[in-house]
Write a structure and sequence with these properties.
331 residues, Ribosomal Protein S5, domain 2, Alpha-Beta Plaits, 6-stranded mixed sheet, 10 strands
């Protein structure tokens, strides 16, 4: 039997990046892009190499460009971390895994390092495949925690729960990570919203703006850990936008939702540096009349457009700065 498992890209609509600081977020699962895992039983445990894992290059320039785009590691370390944490969870839960091995193969269509949660998608898809292979049920909120620990504890990546939660639940989810809840339970309060209530959304991304999200978020983490009042206050403001956004979606108030999306980015600018290229991406979209904010750590934006004419302006204007526009398919 061949197990086919998938997890999809994530777009943070509101509240990002407060999820790592006992905040709140509103996130979407984007089916346009995804991570794909194939797993089947085999005599030995094998993780197949893909293009991102190869160490043979045409020349020194390809090596440089590859490292700039995907870093020094491909997908194999991510899958190893996911398998280890799956095994750790089973041990801690008293679950005895059957004595059988597997071969695992991965593929991802998620643009790398532009704030669409490509790494966590590979981890979630791997965990789902392992659950099916070993016939084990793991609740979605626990699955998200295992995925987060794979990145933070095994790979040393600065990350929060938001990406892993939306990739476990899918659809549109409001997440509340308040300290009392997290201290008592170790996970947040997750409330799905009907994606059919969402307005017309667009996404745009530039692959040449790729960056490692953990490094970007280190700037905020350093200020937060030092007790910087401005940073803490701004993160609280950003978190509250997620609550307001959930109410706006339920009420069908798309104009307010667009204002909140803009406010999320504007507040983020107060506590972290934004590159000129990323500012160009946001400002170009806003000049077309659309709202715009980062989907994650930069390189991709999401917002509301009013009609097909505005969408055409977005496609035309953003293409001139080498950005691709898509209509997100939300599952």
């Amino acid at each position: 039997m061949i197990i086919d498992s998938r997890a999809y890209a994530r777009a943070g609509l509101l509240g990002n990046p407060s999820d790592g600081y006992f905040g709140k977020t509103l996130s979407l699962s984007i089916k346009n892009f995804g991570a794909h895992i194939l797993l089947y039983q085999s005599p030995e445990l094998v993780i197949e190499q893909q293009e991102a894992d190869l160490n043979t290059f045409r020349n020194i320039y390809q090596l440089r460009d590859t490292v700039s785009l995907i870093g020094y590691n491909g997908g194999i370390p991510i899958i190893k971390a996911a398998i280890k944490k799956f095994c750790d969870h089973c041990d801690a839960s008293g679950i005895r895994l059957s004595n059988k091995n597997f071969t695992i193969r991965y593929h991802s269509s998620i643009p790398r390092q532009v704030g669409l949660a490509g790494s966590s998608a590979i981890i979630i898809a791997t965990l789902k495949a392992l659950m099916q292979f070993y016939d084990i049920e793991i609740p979605k909120h626990i699955l998200a925690n295992i995925a987060l620990r794979a990145e933070t504890e095994e790979m040393g990546i600065n990350a929060g729960l938001q990406d892993r939660v939306i990739q476990s639940y899918e659809g549109c989810v409001h997440m509340d990570f308040n300290k009392a809840q997290m201290d008592e339970h170790g996970y947040g309060v997750y409330t799905p919203l009907d994606p059919n209530l969402l307005p017309k959304l667009y996404m745009a991304y530039k692959t040449n703006l790729s960056k490692v999200s953990g490094k970007v978020l280190n700037e905020i983490r350093s200020k937060y850990d030092k007790g910087d009042e401005h940073t803490i206050s701004t993160l609280t403001t950003i978190a509250n936008l997620a609550d307001q956004g959930a109410e706006a979606i339920r009420a069908g108030n798309h104009e307010l939702l667009g204002q909140l999306i803009n406010a999320n980015f504007d507040n983020r600018c107060k506590i972290m540096s934004i590159s000129d290229s990323n500012m160009e991406l946001v400002n170009t979209a806003r000049n077309c009349g659309a709202s715009a904010s980062f989907t994650g750590s930069g390189g991709a934006i999401i917002g509301i457009y009013q009609d097909d004419e505005m969408l055409k302006r977005l496609v035309y204007s953003l293409k001139k700065i080498n950005a691709r526009v898509i209509k997100p398919y939300i599952i």
